[in-house]
Write a structure and sequence with these properties.
Blueprint: H1 5-27, E1 41-42, E2 46-48, E3 52-53, E4 61-66, E5 73-80, E6 87-91, E7 94-96, E8 98-104, E9 109-116, E10 127-137, E11 140-151, E12 154-157, E13 160-161, E14 165-167, E15 173-176, E16 178-181, E17 186-189, E18 194-197, E19 202-205, E20 208-212, E21 219-223, E22 228-230, E23 233-234, E24 245-247, E25 254-257, E26 259-262, E27 268-270, E28 282-285, E29 288-290, E30 297-307, E31 310-312, E32 319-329, E33 332-335, E34 347-350, E35 358-363, E36 366-369, E37 375-377, E38 383-388, E39 391-392, E40 402-403, E41 406-407, E42 414-416, E43 421-423, H2 440-443
Parallel strand pairs: 2-11, 3-11, 12-15, 13-16, 14-17, 15-18, 16-19, 17-20, 18-21, 19-24, 20-25, 21-26, 24-27, 25-28, 26-29, 27-30, 28-30, 29-31, 30-32, 31-33, 32-34, 32-35, 33-36, 34-37, 35-38, 36-39, 38-40, 39-41
Antiparallel strand pairs: 1-4, 4-9, 5-8, 5-10, 6-7, 6-9, 10-11, 22-23, 42-43
Length: about 475
C-alpha cells in the first residue's frame, strides 16, 4: 500500500500531539480541594468491641473512609484523640496513633484497621474504655468513636489443681491449654463464676468437680472469643471454640449444677471405670450443655444421672451412652445443629466394646431434632432401656420399653438455625405440656422445679422446661 506524503505528515502530527498530551498530563500534579464542604464519609460512626480480656488482644475491625465527592481530598492528620494506649490503628500498612497527609482520590476509599489491647485495670467489674479517631482537614474535624470494655481475669496456663480449691465469682478465669484436677482433689466452682477457655484448652478431672451454679447465678463455661463470627452470630453460639470437660477413669462423685456449658469441641466426656451402683460418677442438674462439634455428652461405662437439663446441638451424636447405667428425668435432648449435613441421631444407646451392658432410663424427657430418626440403638441383649412419658422422634414401637410415649409430634421449638438461635421451651400449643408422669416429681423430689426454678404443677410438662402461662390468653 502506498501513502501520500501529506497523509504521513498528518499522521505523524497526530502521534506527536498525543505524546505531548500524555507527557504534559503525567507531569501535572494531582490537585486536592481546600473546599471545607467536600467531606469524607465513614462506614460507621462508632467502632465497638465486645468485652476484651486484659490478657488477650481483640479481633481486628475495619473502618472504611469514603471520598464520594468530585474532588481529591488530602487529610492533614488522622490521630487517636486520647492517650489510653488501648486502641491500635493500622493505616495504609503503617501502625501508629497519628498519620499525616493521607490522600483519598475522588470516588476512592481508605481501609483503616483497629484492634484493642487492654492493660491490667485493677477492677473486678468490666471497665468501659472510650477513644476517638480524629480526621482534620480543610478546617473540618470529624470523629469516629471507639468503644470497648476491658475485663481483668485470673489467667491459668497449664494449671494443675493439687489441693482442694474453690473458684470464686469475683473475676473470670482465662484458661490456656489444660486445667487439670488431680486424683483425690476437689475443685469447687462458686455460683456466678465464669470460666473462659482458649482454643483447644480443656478441663481434665482426675479427682472431683463440684459446680454450684444457681438458676439466678449460673456458672458459665465457654470459649474465650467474645466477638462475632458474622454480624448476627457471636462466637459463643459456635462450636469448637475450646476443648471440653473430661472426667477420667479415676474421677468420682462429680456434680454439675446450674451451669451453662457451650461451644466446645465436645461438651462432657466420661471415661470408662468400674460401675458403683450406689453412687453416680456424674450428676448433671438444672444445666444447659449445648453447641459442640463432637457431641455434648459422651459416656463410656459409667453411672450418670441428669435432670432438668438441656442437651442440644452436639454436631455429631448429641448424647452417646456406651455401657453403664444412665437415668434422665425431665431432660430435653435436641439436635438442630446449624452445620447441616447430619447423618447421626441425637441419642445413641450402645454397649461398651460389645462387652459391658447399658441400661438407660428416660422419664418425662424429649428426644427430637431435624434428622429423620433421633434415636439409634444397638441391636443386642447388652442394651436395654425404658422411655416413660416421653416425646420421641423415632420409629414407632409397641415394645414394653416405651410407656405412654408421644411419637413424632412437633414440640413447637422456636428455631432460627441461620442465626444459631434456639429456644427449646414449651409454648401453650406444645404436646409436651401436661404430658408428664405425675409420679416422677414424687419419686424424685429434685424434679419439683424446672431448669429455671419454676414450680412444676400437678400435671408436669415433658422436658427440662415447665410451660409458664404469661397471660390469661395463653392457657394450655
Amino acid at each position: 500500500m502506498i501513502f501520500s506524503k501529506n497523509y504521513i505528515f498528518r499522521y505523524a502530527m497526530l502521534i506527536a500531539v498525543l505524546c505531548c498530551t500524555v507527557t504534559f498530563s503525567s507531569c501535572e500534579d494531582e490537585s486536592f480541594t481546600s473546599n471545607p464542604s467536600a467531606k469524607v464519609s465513614f462506614s460507621t460512626d462508632t467502632v465497638s468491641f465486645d468485652t476484651v480480656f486484659t490478657a488477650l488482644p481483640s479481633s481486628t475491625k475495619r473502618l472504611m473512609v469514603y471520598n464520594k465527592t468530585g474532588d481529591n481530598i488530602r487529610i492533614n492528620k488522622v490521630e487517636l484523640r486520647s492517650s489510653t494506649n488501648c486502641f491500635h490503628v493500622n493505616l495504609n500498612g503503617r501502625s501508629g496513633d497519628s498519620f499525616s497527609d493521607v490522600e483519598i482520590m475522588s470516588g476512592d476509599s481508605l481501609h483503616i484497621f483497629i484492634n484493642v489491647n487492654v492493660s491490667e485495670l485493677n477492677s473486678d467489674s468490666p471497665v468501659q474504655i472510650l477513644d476517638s479517631l480524629v480526621f482534620i482537614y480543610n478546617g473540618n474535624t470529624q470523629n469516629v468513636k471507639l468503644s470497648t470494655y476491658g475485663q481483668d481475669v485470673k489467667t491459668l496456663r497449664k494449671a494443675v489443681i493439687s489441693e482442694n480449691t474453690t473458684f470464686t465469682r469475683e473475676r473470670p478465669y482465662l484458661i490456656y491449654d489444660t486445667l487439670t484436677v488431680k486424683e483425690g482433689v476437689t475443685l469447687e466452682i462458686e455460683s456466678g463464676s465464669k470460666l473462659y477457655f482458649t482454643n483447644k484448652a480443656t478441663l481434665e478431672v482426675h479427682g472431683t468437680l463440684i459446680v454450684k451454679g444457681l438458676s439466678s447465678h449460673p456458672v458459665l463455661i465457654q470459649g474465650s472469643r467474645l466477638d462475632y463470627l458474622q454480624p448476627e452470630i457471636p462466637y459463643n453460639r459456635v462450636p469448637n471454640q475450646w476443648g471440653g470437660i473430661r472426667f477420667c477413669s479415676e474421677s468420682s462423685n462429680n456434680i454439675i449444677s446450674g451451669t451453662i456449658i457451650k461451644g466446645g469441641n465436645f461438651g462432657i466426656a466420661v471415661d470408662s471405670a468400674a460401675i458403683d451402683s450406689s453412687a453416680y460418677r456424674l450428676t448433671i442438674e438444672n444445666s444447659t450443655i449445648t453447641c459442640a462439634k463432637r457431641g455434648v455428652l459422651n459416656v463410656s461405662n459409667a453411672n450418670v444421672y441428669a435432670y432438668n437439663t438441656l442437651f442440644a446441638n452436639g454436631g455429631y451424636t448429641t448424647i452417646s451412652l456406651n455401657g453403664g447405667l444412665a437415668l434422665f428425668n425431665h431432660c430435653t435432648i435436641a439436635e438442630y445443629s446449624a452445620s447441616g449435613g447430619r447423618n447421626n441421631s441425637a441419642l445413641g444407646l450402645h454397649s461398651y466394646n460389645n462387652e459391658i451392658p447399658l441400661y438407660a432410663e428416660f422419664n418425662n424427657s424429649i428426644v427430637y431434632g431435624s434428622y429423620r430418626q433421633e434415636i439409634v440403638t444397638e441391636e443386642s441383649d447388652l442394651v436395654s432401656f425404658r422411655f416413660n412419658h416421653c416425646l420421641l422422634k423415632a420409629a414407632q414401637s409397641d415394645s414394653a420399653s416405651f410407656v405412654n410415649v408421644i411419637w413424632n409430634e412437633d414440640p413447637t421449638f422456636k428455631i432460627e438455625t441461620s442465626k444459631y438461635l434456639y429456644d427449646f421451651s414449651a409454648d401453650s400449643l406444645s404436646p409436651m405440656v401436661n404430658a408428664g408422669d405425675t409420679l416422677i416429681r414424687v419419686k424424685y423430689p429434685d424434679c419439683q422445679y424446672d431448669i429455671n426454678g419454676n414450680s412444676r404443677d400437678s400435671l408436669p410438662d415433658i422436658g427440662a422446661y415447665e410451660f409458664v402461662c404469661l397471660n390469661k390468653h395463653e392457657e394450655p
